[in-house]
Specification:
With 277 residues, this protein is α+β, with helices and mostly antiparallel strands. It folds into 3 domains: 118 residues; 83 residues; 75 residues, no CATH class. 67% of the residues lie in helices and 8% in strands. Strands 2-1-3-4 form a 4-stranded mixed β-sheet, with helices on both faces. It starts with a helix and ends with a helix. The model has no long low-confidence stretch (mean pLDDT 92).
Length: 277
């Protein structure tokens, strides 16, 4: 996203946060705004002329907000309408970036709802858990990544898998991600889980271990990594028995391989180098 669009999104996000904070029921308001913003994006995706018009820099802000209000004013809650009018009144670099901005704002609204419900950490864990589930289920991932399938079909497929097993915020966010892929289902869900961690003020450490970590092990590991990196750490863990023992730690671009498999690989490399001499 270009600088102008980032600034536009930041301005609208301030309005979004105020609307949620000052509502009588912040959780319900956040959930409704998030869901309705996603529905608006669905319509913009299907109507190119409308998508272009509400972001057209040649029009005056009042003209763009007028179009946005005429189309959506009676179809969404007043708080959602105010977010949409604020977005239309900003200068975006392109219609595509306005669309992405509305997606980001919808996500932020749902995450604020989860936070108000005391479920933000749970949502983070569930989103990462879904990414691991898909990584281990290649057939399901292929179906969800099928570019020829409609967004509705893919959302319906995932909804059947996760319904009743995750919070309503996780479900709404996951279905949005699957319906509007940026990379692939596994990476998109993991990236969103990282976004939630950042909202909680934490840096993600992705841990792959030979056996499942206990709660005490996760806490101890988070403490050690905090000392090393100087920041709060969120542990996203998965199990890979092929490591044989130990774990692999990824923080940003840095990888620390303390697995038994990694040690064996390095030992073989050292022996091969010695033999070569």
């Amino acid at each position: 996203m270009k600088a102008a669009s980032r600034e536009a999104q930041e301005q609208v996000q301030v309005r979004l946060e105020d609307l949620i904070r000052n509502s009588d029921n912040s959780v319900a308001a956040a959930a409704q705004i998030g869901a309705e913003l996603f529905l608006v994006v669905d319509q913009l995706d299907g109507e190119r002329a409308l998508r272009v018009a509400v972001a057209d820099p040649s029009l005056e802000p009042a003209q763009r907000t007028g179009i946005m209000g005429d189309v959506f004013g009676n179809r969404v809650a007043d708080q959602t309408k105010q977010v949409l009018l604020a977005a239309a009144g900003q200068e975006w670099s392109s219609p595509r970036e306005l669309r992405q901005g509305l997606i980001n704002l919808g996500r932020r609204a749902l995450l604020r709802g989860a936070e108000g419900q005391g479920q933000l950490e749970q949502v983070e864990e569930e989103l990462f858990g879904l990414s691991v589930l898909l990584e281990n289920n290649k057939q399901l991932t292929q179906l969800l990544a099928d570019r020829t399938a409609t967004a509705e079909k893919k959302r319906g497929l995932l909804a059947n898998v996760i319904y009743g097993h995750v919070t309503m915020f996780t479900e709404a966010l996951a279905l949005q991600v699957i319906g509007r892929p940026e990379s692939n289902p596994v990476d998109d869900l993991a990236a969103l889980a990282t976004e939630v961690a950042q909202l909680r003020g934490k840096t993600v450490a992705r841990i792959t271990s030979a056996e499942e970590l206990s709660d005490s092990q996760r806490e101890a590991l988070a403490g050690k990594l905090k000392t090393i990196y100087g920041c709060e750490i969120a542990i996203h863990s998965e199990v890979d028995p092929s490591l044989l023992g130990g774990m692999v730690i990824r923080v940003g671009d840095e990888v620390i391989d303390g697995s038994t498999r990694g040690k064996i690989t390095r030992l073989r490399a050292d022996l091969a180098a010695t033999t070569a001499y």
